[in-house]
Design a protein that fits this description.
9 helices
């Protein structure tokens, strides 16, 4: 990642964005798209590649996990399984009920006005328009991903995990790449130094 990194989204901004998305033309789809970024850390390319089969179980119900195969990810090793955050799972259930017969395993999860799937460029443009309309300068389609990785890194020790677990969730081949995504926390550094 060269140049400026996308800004992370605060919890207050996240709530405001979800409130705004509830008023859009396709609120169920739009909330899922935003939550795929914030609560699963997906890239635009991965979001565009998702089908219902990747988020449902054998009975067609929204599953507990999201499967991102290598072909839907970046590179040959980016595939992974991500546990679904309860907010994302609930949003997917809502989207599935809204889509009805269109929510079949082979169909794209995210759809355009004409009903077809979205391209990665369209997903990036959707995020650009969202953040621009809310005057959130410095945010992009990667902001949710950076937010997800940063939040996971800050909480992972509380659940007995390590940065390796965050790396797996992010689909990175190296821990160094994962570390470049993590936003530092001045207050946490101050508290840490006080403990030394």
């Amino acid at each position: 990642m060269q140049g400026k990194q996308a800004k992370i989204v605060s919890p207050t901004q996240e709530r405001a964005i979800l409130g705004y998305l509830a008023t859009t033309r396709y609120p169920a789809r739009d909330q899922v798209m935003f939550l795929l970024s914030m609560k699963a850390g997906l890239r635009a390319q991965e979001m565009a590649s998702l089908t219902w089969a990747m988020v449902t179980d054998a009975q067609g119900q929204v599953a507990e996990v999201l499967h991102v195969p290598n072909r839907a990810s970046k590179g040959k090793t980016g595939g992974r399984t991500i546990p679904l955050h309860p907010d994302l799972q609930a949003a997917l259930v809502t989207l599935q009920s809204v889509r009805g017969d269109m929510a079949t395993p082979e169909r794209p999860l995210l759809f355009s006005e004409r009903g077809g799937g979205l391209s990665p460029a369209t997903v990036r443009l959707w995020f650009h328009r969202l953040y621009t309309s809310l005057k959130m300068d410095g945010c992009s389609s990667h902001s949710g991903r950076r937010t997800f990785i940063t939040r996971a890194a800050r909480k992972v020790s509380q659940v007995g995990g390590s940065l390796r677990d965050v790396q797996d969730l992010a689909g990175h081949t190296s821990l160094a790449m994962t570390q470049r995504y993590i936003e530092g926390d001045t207050e946490a550094k101050r508290k840490l130094v006080a403990l030394i």
